[in-house]
Structures are given as structure tokens and as C-alpha cells.
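Page 42, continued from yesterday. The earlier attempt failed because a stray header line got pasted into the input along with the sequence. Redoing it now with the clean sequence only.
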Amino acid sequence: MDREVLKLMAHIDQTRAEVRTAIERLPPDDLVELFRDCTRGCLGGMDESLQQLVGMLAAMAIYDVCLSRQDEGDGSAAGPTCPHCGEDDIDRLVWLDDEKVRCDCCGTVYDPDQPDAEA
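This time it went through. C-alpha cells are written below.
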């Protein structure tokens, strides 16, 4: 899978809890109205925070599609594997910037383009 897609998927994973919290805080009537507006394509009338929430929901849906495609298997690794401990769970590999990943399992920081060379 493309490196940029993996980075975006990791970012979405990290913000998923925040989106869930925002959704849980919406009153039930507002949540129903949000779904209705989305299905009718009425995003222009929403305030900026709701537009951002809808954008994140759409991004999470795309993320889920990417995961399902990945599960179908093309034989490639799920993401950048830690060169020290071999961790490959994207939930435990945190992008620090465009070139470095930190493994939450062992603390190793490395460049995923050069997984054999520890940073």
C-alpha cells in the first residue's frame, strides 16, 4: 500500500477516539439531522465544526475500505515494520513527521523507507 495512504490511515486511527467523542456529545436530534443533511448532500449549510466532523467520518469510511482491501491481501505488509522488534501493528507505529516512525512497543524511531537501518 502507498506510504502516503499508510500515513493518512495512521492519522485517522489516532483521531478516531476524538471523532467518537464529538459524535457522542451531539444531542440525538442533532445526530439524526446530521445524517439527513449528509444523505441529501446539504453540507454547505453546516457550520465549520460539523463540516470537519463529516469530513472525518468520510475519511474513516475510506480508511475502512482501505483496511478491507488490505485484508483481501495482496501479499504486501500492512505498514512499516519496526526494524528492532518487528512490530507491524499500525496502531502501535506512530508517524512523527514525514520521514520518521516511532514504535510504541520498543521505542525505536526509524525511517520506514530504510527499515533495515535503525535511526
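Notes: The CA atoms of residues 83 and 116 lie 6 Å apart.
Reminder to self: strip header lines before submitting.
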